[in-house]
Amino acid sequence: MILVTGATGRVGYRVAEYLTEAGARATAMVRVPARVMALPRVAGHIVSTLGDPPPPDTLQAFDRVFLMSPAGEAQEEMEVVFVDALVAAGHRPHVVKLATDGFQDLDCDVRFMRSHRGVARHLEATGLPVTYVAACPYMENLLAWTDEIRENGLLSAPVGRGRVGFVAARDVAATAAHALMSCDGDGPTYVVTGPEALTYADVAKRISAVFARQVDHAESTPSRTRSALRAKGVGPWECEGMLEMFDWIRHGGCNVVTGDVRDVTGENPRPIERWLGKQRGAFLGAPSGASYF
Length: 293
Description:
This protein is α/β, with parallel strands linked by helices. The chain has two domains: 2-135 and 168-192, NAD(P)-binding Rossmann-like Domain (Rossmann fold); 141-164 and 195-255 and 270-284, UDP-galactose 4-epimerase, domain 1. It is built from twelve helices and nine strands. The strands form two sheets. The protein has a seven-stranded parallel sheet with strand order 3-2-1-4-5-6-8, with helices on both faces. It has a two-stranded parallel sheet with strand order 7-9. Strand 1 (2-4), helix 1 (12-21) and strand 2 (26-30) form a beta-alpha-beta unit. Helix 1 (12-21) packs across helix 6 (169-182).
């Protein structure tokens, strides 16, 4: 039996969906009982949180666990608490941990990657079998710019000519689901990317081509970006993390393309044009209210 944490989120929902379609026995973990109605047709569900895990007798039913949580200041603490609960249950399940590519690089000082690195250190200290799915930035992150693109024809970010192997959340989820169904002993780290690494200027050109309107990349400054993020309601910790991420991109940290999606799933990762074509309403419709996370 497979336990899927974060089962109502961008990736977790699709992991549960892929597992169900493949005939795997999956149970979704949700924080709020009302969210059960939003789940795919999984075998079952439990109501709990990473910071307040299910009791040992419940966890003992799962031999594989998909571990993920939203980016936030408490992410490392919550995931460590949950890992300790798995250890205390005594049955040593295989953990497939969703991370952000760069967590493996000790020189990467982006707080999001540091959080994942801390969880990884703790997992390794426990001796639990683990597989990492380390994703490049999601194509879905671009939805945070839809209002600016619609109103001003601009994609503004302080990233210079840095390239990003943008990946669709569906491809991340498919890779994680396959890993959950096939893991046996300590697994590898899958670095999950799209088919190419693009500059933000490249992305603006692809948006222009797909939606037949002129969109340009405008290089911003960290201070202007900080003000824009805070105005959108992004909290201080997350805001500074985004600025660190943009700096990481600018210096080449996300210029990564791998074949791991194809190798694991047997399918090529989605190109950005295909993803954009499914997002017409977001890019051309009413204000999105999209989040950076």
